[in-house]
């Protein structure tokens, strides 16, 4: 049976109908067309090829396509989180030949209208950007929090050799108190039943692989379904916490993996320890190239970049950039 996935909005703002765009809910069959217009985005680190199928199955998510004369020219995903109060915008992309014409703006407004009619309790829209925000963006958005982005690349085999040389393999930490990998019960207790994480997380927000979550049980249900290693330095009094998303393949080339580490807290030694633990446990089984992106307190970017380059001998891919979680009211 063919499912009708076309979307009609009774009261589309004028600009949308003028743009001559049609909007549909994405299906498995659209995958190739979407990938064709997604070449080279996010510097080859596009997560969509890996996430697409599971995105389509998530009950709180809708993936919307904009089409022009039937052809897919843009995509955006909206996911309702934070007990239904937040719509999270992700995956936004416009086909290269259609950029600069206002398509993203029209699609964003369409998705906002759709979410408002489907989830009337949604109050804010959140998204995470890594580009330079301009004055117009500051009029539109409130900044929730910022993290520095440290992007390094290496061959997994070379890094494993280097970690062994440094005596770091099998010896996760030279300190007496190695970081603790958390089980689900401890994560739940630490993040939801105590206020211990409030001082560690930026603006009390868990940012996992670009997604900002408030500290709420409903969000924890979403997070605990994912393959993530959760770590803290000390379960009774955490200073640094981290979430390492299991590595996945990215389109930059064959045998290229993306490793995402979200790091919270300001203590350089503890950050270094947790970073090394995640690298050790996730790069040892890999063969091939790794793009490792760590999001961390902006003040720790420089010393961690120096550590990566000077001690680990890995290549810094780009200079300092920021991951910015922004929010606007849904009106
Ligand atoms: C970023 C991109 C989607 C912009 O598309 P576009 O159609 O050229 O953008 P527009 O002409 O509609 O103009 C910009 C509008 O999109 C919004 N926009 C631009 N970049 C954005 C971003 N990264 N995230 C969310 N909104 C963005 C602007 O705020 C503006 O909205 P407004 O009309 O309400 O003012 C497009 O260049 C693209 O696909 N780039 C590659 C993928 C990418 O970097 N995506 C961003 C993910 S964070």
From TrEMBL:
GO MF annotations, alphabetized: L-histidine N-acetyltransferase activity
Role noted for this protein: Enzyme responsible for the N-acetyl-histidine (NAH) synthesis, which is a major constituent of brain and lens of ectothermic vertebrates.
Pfam families cross-referenced by the UniProt entry: Acetyltransf_1, Hisat_C
Family matches, as Gene3D superfamilies: 3.40.630.30
Domain (N-acetyltransferase): residue spans on this chain: 21-156
Keywords attached to this entry: Acyltransferase, Transferase
EC number in record: 2.3.1.33
Name used for this protein in its record: Histidine N-acetyltransferase
Catalytic activity line of the entry: L-histidine + acetyl-CoA = N(alpha)-acetyl-L-histidine + CoA + H(+)
Coiled-coil intervals: none
């Amino acid at each position: 049976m063919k499912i009708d996935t076309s979307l009609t909005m009774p009261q589309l703002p004028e600009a949308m109908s003028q743009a001559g765009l049609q909007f549909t809910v994405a299906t498995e069959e659209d995958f190739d067309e979407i990938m064709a217009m997604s070449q080279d985005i996010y510097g080859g680190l596009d997560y969509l090829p890996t996430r697409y199928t599971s995105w389509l199955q998530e009950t709180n998510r809708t993936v919307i396509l904009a089409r022009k004369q039937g052809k897919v020219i843009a995509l955006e995903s909206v996911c309702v989180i934070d007990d239904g109060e937040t719509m999270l915008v992700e995956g936004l992309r416009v086909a290269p030949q259609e950029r600069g014409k206002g398509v993203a703006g029209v699609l964003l407004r369409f998705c906002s209208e759709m979410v408002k009619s489907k989830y009337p309790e949604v109050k804010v829209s959140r998204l995470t950007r890594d580009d330079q925000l301009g004055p117009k963006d500051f009029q539109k958005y409130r900044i929730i929090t910022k993290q520095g982005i440290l992007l390094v690349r290496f061959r997994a085999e070379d890094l494993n050799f280097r970690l062994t040389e440094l005596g770091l393999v099998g010896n996760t930490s030279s300190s007496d108190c190695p970081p603790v990998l958390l089980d689900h019960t401890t994560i739940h207790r630490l993040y939801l039943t105590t206020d211990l994480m409030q001082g560690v997380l930026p603006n009390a927000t868990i940012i996992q692989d670009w997604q900002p979550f408030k500290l709420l049980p409903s969000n924890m249900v979403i997070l605990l379904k994912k393959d993530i290693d959760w770590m803290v330095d000390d379960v009774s009094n955490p200073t640094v916490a981290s979430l390492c998303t299991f590595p996945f393949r990215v389109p930059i080339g064959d045998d290229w993996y993306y490793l995402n580490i979200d790091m919270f807290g300001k203590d350089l030694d503890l950050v270094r320890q947790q970073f090394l633990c995640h690298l050790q446990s996730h790069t040892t089984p890999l063969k091939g190239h790794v793009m490792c992106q760590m999001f961390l307190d902006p003040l720790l970017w420089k010393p961690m970049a120096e550590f990566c380059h000077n001690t680990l001998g890995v290549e810094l891919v780009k200079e300092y950039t920021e991951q910015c979680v922004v929010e606007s009211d849904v009106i």
